[in-house]
Amino acid sequence: MISKNMKILVEKSAGISALFSEGKRMREVLGEENVFDFGIGNPNVNAPLSVNKTAIELLETMDSLALHSYTDGTGIPSVRQAIAESVNRRFQEEYTGENIVMTAGAAGGLNVILKVLLDQGDEVLTFAPYFSEYDVYVANAGGRLIAIEPNVPSFLPDAKKLEEAITPKTKAIIINNPNNPTGVVYDVQTLGKIAGVLKAKEKELGTSIYLISDEPYRELVFDGATVPYIPKLYGNTIVAYSFSKSLSLPGDRIGYLTIPSTVQDFQEVVFGAGVANRILGFVNAPVLQQLVVAKCCDEKSDIAFYDKNREILYSALSQYGFECAKPQGAFYLFVKSMEEDEFAFVNKAKEFGILMTPGSGFGCKGYVRIAYCVARDTIERALPSFEKLAKAYQK
Ligand code: PLP
């Protein structure tokens, strides 16, 4: 018999599992060419050529034992150093390898850092809408995720609401920039206010509040938007980064945590992260992928492809009467449901072959998420169906 906890998790993840099976069911009923699946955020542009080339070169030239051996839980020292230098070039910092911990993607990094920081019952704040897996990641470490209600329609984090939500039990806050599911990029003024609140609350309560910045979409920005580097605003920040989206390597499970020396109890946090990597079951981030990203970390997959998808879909949907803020990052549109119950709206869309994700899963009812990381052809062929869907509500 599976545990009660697992039963709850299975129920919670039913939405995502349902997306996979629903897509399959719809393809069987409507035919492959009549289904437009915007459900899952799986990158669909190739990794840069240099990624495969580097992997092949490593496999052909490196000593087999060295290439396939266990490494330190924090990562290979030369890789940590190469990543630190890349981060320094981009954000004018002075990190060394000591500030970097290699992880199995951002999911690995988030689970590791939460395991390091949380005691049973500690509270972690986040701003809705938020990546639904945060609930589970925080629970895995014995904590409790508290979502601050969405700030509609800008979806920018609200410093005032944060101030009201912080309690003596608040151990951390997770911010995701650019945001999944809204595609909104948090600007420096907004983040500056958040930093101000955190500093004041740390002083008032005599506690340490860690800011965890989840940044797997950092490179996916459009219209010249920039993603502020939060450690410059708030020293007690840990950044979770991933190559899943920037290099299109979601299945290779590679990313890293940046733990600046300004983080409270920095040495212990880094050491703890190495231990957490081991005891959570990752043991170490995949060695081949560590070595690949050490060489390819300054490259990007074809971001312009997502930008074009965004332009086509956003302008068509606006023209058809859908309400949605133009996203500046990630590869999602967060669209207002055309009826109050967004589940009914999602079901209506299925009649036209369109599959999208209800906003409630992200803590924001009344909206739906459209993941536009799909083939261009899928977007172009889906437009008449979106138009019909809008018309169904305009009668
Ligand atoms: N955080 C957010 C906001 C995400 O959207 C995702 C994946 O889609 C992750 C973390 C996990 O990413 P990774 O594949 O790097 O573990």
From TrEMBL:
GO terms for molecular function: pyridoxal phosphate binding; transaminase activity. Its cofactor is pyridoxal 5'-phosphate. It is an enzyme of class 2 (transferase). Pfam families: Aminotran_1_2. Keywords: Aminotransferase, Transferase. Its EC number is 2.6.1.-. Residues 34-383 form the Aminotransferase class I/classII large domain. Gene3D superfamilies: Aspartate Aminotransferase, domain 1 (3.90.1150.10), Type I PLP-dependent aspartate aminotransferase-like (Major domain) (3.40.640.10). It comes from the Bacteria. The keyword Transferase applies. The keyword Transferase applies. Belongs to the class-I pyridoxal-phosphate-dependent aminotransferase family. This is Aminotransferase.
